[in-house]
Amino acid sequence: MIKNIRDLYRGTNDIKKGYQPGNNIVKNKNGNLVTDCHSILVRCSNHFPQLLNVYGVKDVRQLEKHTGEPLVLKS
Predict the structure, then answer these.
(1) In a domain, 43, yes or no
(2) Is residue 38 part of a domain?
(3) Per-residue b/e over 4-15, b at no fewer than 16 CB within 10 Å?
(4) What is the per-residue pLDDT across 18-34, written as a single tens digit (0 to 9) for each?
(5) 3-state secondary structure of 29
(6) Pairing with 52, which of 5, 16, 25, 65 sits 20 to 30 Å away (CA)?
(7) CA nearest neighbour of 39 among 55, 53, 25, 22
């Protein structure tokens, strides 16, 4: 029963908002916007391997640690 109510509210919200097309735009390495599908696929295939693969790190302790607060050394 709950699933049907969720679907009802979701459908009602979709009708109220109307059609909203999605945007297929990414930025290339230079910061320019790319809109055609082939260029977007090429950009993603180049970007994510660089982002997800870490080369040259032999020990995890060598990685920099980024925190929201500056590190304070205790005296």
Answers:
(1) yes
(2) yes
(3) eeeeeeeeeeee
(4) 877 888 899 988 999 99
(5) coil
(6) 25
(7) 25
